Q: What sequence folds into this?
């Protein structure tokens, strides 16, 4: 193989890979019909048939519920909105604790704060990067109201185990299923094992509607409360004779007819959009698995991994080059990637300064939970030393380009000692 591109050689991948687009003619036609109808949203925030949205929204929800075999699918305008609605629906109250992982999109961890809930971080597993049930169990107190499991990077958390743990303690399991639309554990779809599961349909996910989300649940009461929180529930409480008015300050989390129309088409083709990403990730794993100091993603027995992110654990000692330098060389070869995912979320100023809502530090005044460094050592180590991430969802990669990606990684690994001269001379 030729010299490293970082040292003046020719890059393996000449051009930036094109972006993946899941949009096609069917989506265009579906949107066109909504435009022609003149009505881009069918919602009214008051009692009456329009309280539950327009025809496409309802059709989309019915299709989603049928596709995943759930009793209720409630569409929202984002996964973030869905998380907030879920926190409201379970009756979360100021001072209640919600156990969350520190390695996830920030919305997962901050959503309890909207209701005065206290996020409590439990560390992740070293192999699948999902929240560790043992660490969760150690954090449960009489104040715990819910556990949020994220099926991170497309791999299911230990959902059955977490659900059993939640049931034993009489608390809720909520699944943030933004990254694993077709994940499964022992044949059961992700999103369905928790009391509520929440999908994301933002642009970066496997399928999307621009912005959007869907909450699924088999519980009639929870579904009804999510619908109320989604759409100005305060206006319905008196009219519908709802006795439990807890958290019935509503929002506007409504999905538009445009998004629902796109969502219907995307949903019909979700298997294809997910399996393309899975195949790319598997090609990268199979092509680089043998490399020393380079640990490709593992899939727990009985699970389906959707590979929202393909994360490699880099062992600088075994490889003999720093992660940063290796990454520079990889980038020079044209392999798009980044180091780390997000910082452990308790490092956000919000937690460090213990101020979320208002000026008085509320709701942190309700707890003596601390958010110091060292809280979740597995997450900190992955973030600081080990993670190299590639996003199969982001790029349109054919088999030839996938092979080039493998070649780029193998080239840098094979020539890694050449990088040490660079490190020494600075
Ligand atoms: C994308 C994502 C979210 C947020 O989704 P939105 O639809 O953008 O609100 C939340 N959690 C996880 C794990 C995500 O990946």
A:
């Amino acid at each position: 193989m030729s010299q490293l591109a970082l040292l003046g050689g020719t890059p393996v991948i000449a051009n930036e890979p094109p972006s993946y687009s899941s949009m096609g003619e069917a989506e265009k036609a579906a949107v066109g019909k909504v435009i022609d109808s003149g009505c881009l949203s069918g919602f009214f925030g008051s009692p009456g048939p329009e309280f539950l949205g327009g025809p496409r929204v309802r059709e989309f929800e019915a299709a989603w519920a049928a596709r995943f075999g759930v009793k209720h699918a409630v569409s929202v305008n984002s996964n973030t909105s869905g998380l907030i609605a879920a926190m409201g629906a379970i009756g979360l109250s100021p001072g209640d604790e919600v156990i969350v992982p520190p390695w996830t999109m920030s919305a997962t961890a901050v959503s309890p704060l909207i209701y005065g809930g206290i996020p409590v971080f439990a560390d992740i597993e070293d192999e699948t990067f999902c929240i560790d049930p043992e660490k969760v169990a150690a954090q449960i107190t009489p104040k715990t109201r819910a556990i949020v499991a994220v099926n991170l990077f497309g791999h299911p958390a230990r959902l059955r185990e977490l659900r059993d743990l939640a049931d034993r303690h009489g608390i809720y399991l909520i699944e943030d299923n933004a990254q694993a639309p077709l994940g499964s554990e022992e044949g059961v779809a992700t999103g369905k094992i928790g009391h509520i599961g929440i999908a994301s349909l933002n642009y970066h996910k496997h399928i999307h509607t621009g912005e959007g989300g869907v909450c699924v649940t088999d519980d009639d009461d929870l579904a009804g409360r999510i619908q109320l929180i989604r759409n100005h529930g305060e206006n319905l409480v008196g009219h519908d004779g709802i006795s439990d008015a807890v958290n019935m300050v509503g929002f506007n989390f409504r999905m538009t007819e445009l998004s629902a129309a796109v969502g219907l088409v995307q949903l019909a083709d979700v298997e294809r959009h997910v399996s393309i990403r899975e195949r790319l990730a598997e090609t990268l794993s199979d092509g680089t698995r043998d490399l020393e100091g380079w640990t490709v993603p593992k899939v727990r027995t009985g699970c389906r991994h959707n590979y929202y992110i393909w994360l490699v654990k880099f062992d600088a000692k075994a490889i003999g080059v720093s992660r940063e330098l290796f990454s520079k060389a990889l980038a020079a070869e044209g392999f798009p990637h980044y180091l780390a995912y997000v910082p452990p979320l308790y490092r956000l100023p919000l937690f460090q300064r213990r101020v979320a809502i208002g000026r008085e530090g509320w709701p942190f005044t309700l707890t003596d939970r601390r958010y110091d460094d060292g809280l979740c050592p597995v997450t900190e180590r992955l973030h600081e030393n080990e993670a190299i991430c590639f996003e199969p969802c982001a790029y349109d990669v054919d088999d030839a380009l996938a092979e080039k990606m493998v070649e780029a990684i193998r080239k840098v690994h094979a020539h890694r000692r050449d990088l040490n001269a660079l490190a020494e001379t600075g």
Observations:
- The chain is about 35% helix and 15% strand.
- The pocket of pyridoxal-5'-phosphate is lined by residues 78-80, 104-105, 107-108, 150, 176, 178-179, 200, 202, 213 (CB under 6 Å).
- The first strand starts at residue 72 and ends at 76.
- The mean pLDDT is 97.
